[in-house]
Specification:
single chain; globular; 193 residues; alpha/beta; 6 helices
């Protein structure tokens, strides 16, 4: 008998702040020919972040106003494949009330009840409280310091949380499969390998 593994948790990634820090000078391109990108902030994007992001036990999803341009511009520089992209709805008059970030409701909808982590530089306690009240699965809203972008400490927090969420999902998947198998009539059990 084979059991489908539980899907990995989602990791929603913001770009400006977490991947392209606002403070300091950021990553320095090596000497030699440089590609003219038209966006001077791209010089702050550290290509070493890509392999580190890919090593995390989660499904990477762009959650940025860059939208699909993140796949066109950032993914190649980071060595990432094309990632899913969150499509943002048109802003409404109610957005931002009570300190809630305009991305929060959309990300909870996009998660669809699945565990998720969100790395962004604008997360507030209001976002954490709203997600806790409206999302049935575990969620980590991780605020990244926009002056430094993602650091070793941020990667440690994300890796730990995503790893625990992935392991819990796998345990839950096995438990559900075991309960399902135990409910089958005895004749069905005999046919299982």
């Amino acid at each position: 008998m084979t059991f489908a593994a539980a899907p990995l948790p989602l990791l929603f990634l913001d770009v400006d702040g977490p991947l392209i820090p606002f403070g300091g000078t950021g990553y320095r391109l090596p000497a030699g020919p440089r590609e003219e990108s038209g966006n001077p902030l791209l010089a702050r994007l550290d290509p070493a972040l890509g392999p580190r992001l890919l090593a995390l036990p989660g499904v990477l999803v762009w959650a940025t106003t860059w939208e699909d341009e993140a796949n066109e511009t950032l993914s190649p520089r980071l060595g990432l494949p094309r990632l899913p992209v969150v499509d943002w709805p048109e802003p409404s008059e109610g957005e931002g009330r009570g300190g809630l970030h305009w991305k929060t409701r959309t990300l909870v909808d996009r998660a669809g009840g699945r565990p998720f982590a969100w790395a962004d530089d604008e997360i507030t306690p209001a976002d954490r409280a709203w997600v806790a009240a409206h999302h049935p699965a575990p969620a980590l809203l991780h605020r990244v310091d926009p002056r430094t972008g993602l650091t070793d400490a941020d990667f440690a927090v994300l890796a730990d949380w995503l790893g625990r969420a992935a392991a819990a999902g796998s345990r839950q998947s096995v438990s559900v499969a075991a309960r399902t198998a135990s409910r089958r009539p005895s004749g069905d059990r005999a046919a299982m390998p």
